[in-house]
Task: inverse folding
């Protein structure tokens, strides 16, 4: 792929940097703007309009007035717009991948993977849109006929994080469009460019004015508070940290909003003594190092049976030491920069705390000299279960290895967290794998595999990892409400 400065400049010039409101690109009413930086170089990529409360109210007006006609638009028409959106994402795959690498830092090959994964939500929900059936049946007593239909929930507020700038947007926008909802999308301030580029593609695909309104901002509460206080808003779907999710859930109680929360994780990756260790190492590498470890699905704690811990750790160290760290635009790079200096500092603190509590650094151990927010792939062993690295979401390329003696202990260690999003189990005994699935409190389980996200599958967590599911038929149901009409029996 051409990554010359001329190509990148041309791409940044083509990328919208305004708000998208009621079918038009507009400046923020206050005129405010904020800078978007490249985490690999710390250089400014673009200056983007920053929405405030007045823009939020204008977006709410637009979404509310478009709701009725969009909700009544035949599902086939909505599906065709989504399908054209999918096709346009394929046609612009290189541009989207480059923008993601520029603003978020992930290696280009992983950005290309995200275009495939993120684009797939548009195709999957274009196919689901026309299959959102209700039912018609007699009540058991034969006294009534039941007509059960699904209606769009209504205008939605969609808030996305910076770590998967394309997929986190399409995972919400596509089912909302398929269900017939209008929306206000607020991307993360660190990575608004991919979302703005996607918006232009969806407009080209034929979205009517007011259906999708996009409000980048570096003052998120100024946008979300007036929206959450507005009775016309009917739903919030949020992906981000548990702390911000809880805060928004509190605000959402005022108008009793439908709420979907995709929050933080602290995923265990369990390697049993009967695992294929090469498969387990490959799985751990994918589940831990992909996206620089900045994934809610990341394997945060690697739990290995004591009889294979030494061999597993040696093999993982060998594979991790071969990872190339550098700018995501460089050929062959496996690990790009972390998102910002704060992220690097907090990952370093977690490593220091683990070392103070007796962990041994097998590999890496700290940030790499700047410019750019690079952190060396780090492998820790003999990690104390009390270490912060075990209890908190790491969000960096740090793999802590802990050991267990038997299945009960592995299950207890896996469940010893307030989170419950992704988990991974490696064993060649499938009935054991399924048994562990029954016993661990996680919404997702990868059995002998390190990456399982898919547009057709329900993604989401239990406990403090959130509420609701994205993807699959479940993902569409989040944007519909059920109506039952009881009809007198003929
Ligand atoms: P974050 O909570 O800081 O921000 C997420 C979004 O919320 C951003 O758009 C941000 O601008 C916005 N926001 C922040 N404060 C707000 C406020 N007071 N009012 C309204 N909006 C506000 O999270 P992040 O750092 O962007 O993302 C990382 C987190 O996201 C991690 O915890 C990760 O696990 C989680 N995550 C979860 C999933 C999932 O599907 N469960 C997927 C990706 C990321």
Result:
């Amino acid at each position: 792929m051409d990554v010359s400065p001329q190509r990148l400049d041309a791409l940044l010039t083509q990328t919208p940097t305004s708000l998208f409101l009621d079918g038009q690109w507009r400046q923020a009413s206050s005129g405010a703007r904020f800078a978007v930086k490249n985490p690999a170089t710390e250089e400014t990529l673009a200056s983007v309009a920053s929405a405030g409360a007045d823009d939020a109210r204008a977006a709410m007006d637009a979404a509310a007035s478009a709701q009725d006609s969009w909700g009544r638009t035949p599902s086939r028409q909505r599906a065709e717009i989504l399908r054209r959106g999918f096709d346009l994402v394929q046609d612009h795959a290189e541009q989207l991948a480059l923008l993601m690498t520029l603003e978020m830092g992930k290696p280009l090959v992983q950005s290309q993977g995200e275009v495939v994964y993120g684009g797939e939500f548009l195709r999957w929900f274009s196919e689901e849109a026309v299959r959102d059936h209700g039912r018609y049946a007699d009540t058991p007593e034969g006294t009534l006929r039941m007509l059960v239909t699904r209606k769009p929930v209504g205008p939605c507020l969609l808030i996305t994080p910076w770590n998967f700038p394309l997929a986190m947007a399409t995972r919400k926008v596509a089912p909302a469009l398929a269900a017939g909802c209008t929306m206000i999308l607020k991307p993360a301030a660190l990575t608004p460019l991919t979302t703005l580029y996607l918006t232009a593609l969806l407009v080209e695909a034929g979205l009517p004015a007011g259906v999708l309104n996009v409000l980048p901002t570096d003052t998120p509460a100024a946008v979300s508070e007036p929206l959450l206080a507005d009775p016309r808003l009917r739903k919030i779907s949020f992906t981000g940290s548990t702390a911000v999710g809880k805060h928004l859930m509190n605000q959402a109680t005022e108008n009793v909003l439908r709420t979907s929360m995709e929050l933080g994780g602290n995923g265990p990756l369990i390697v049993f003594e009967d695992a294929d260790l090469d498969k387990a190492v490959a799985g751990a590498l994918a589940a831990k190092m992909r996206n620089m470890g900045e994934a809610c699905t990341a394997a945060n704690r690697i739990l290995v049976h004591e009889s294979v811990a030494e061999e597993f750790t040696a093999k993982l160290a060998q594979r991790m030491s071969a990872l190339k760290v550098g700018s995501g635009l460089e050929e062959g790079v496996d690990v790009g920069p972390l998102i910002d200096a704060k992220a690097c500092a907090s990952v370093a603190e977690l490593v220091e705390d683990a070392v103070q509590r007796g962990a041994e650094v097998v590999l890496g151990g700290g940030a790499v000299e700047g410019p750019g927010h690079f952190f060396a792939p780090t492998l820790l062993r003999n990690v104390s279960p009390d270490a912060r690295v075990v209890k908190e979401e790491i969000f960096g390329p740090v793999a802590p290895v802990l050991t267990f003696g038997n299945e009960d202990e592995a299950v207890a260690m896996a469940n010893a967290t307030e989170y419950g999003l992704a988990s991974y189990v490696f064993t060649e005994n499938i009935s054991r794998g399924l048994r562990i699935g029954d016993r661990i409190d996680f919404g997702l389980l990868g059995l002998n595999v390190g990456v399982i996200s898919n547009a057709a599958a329900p993604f989401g967590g239990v406990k403090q990892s959130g509420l609701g599911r994205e993807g699959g038929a479940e993902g569409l149901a989040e944007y519909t409400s059920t109506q039952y009409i009881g009809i007198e029996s003929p």
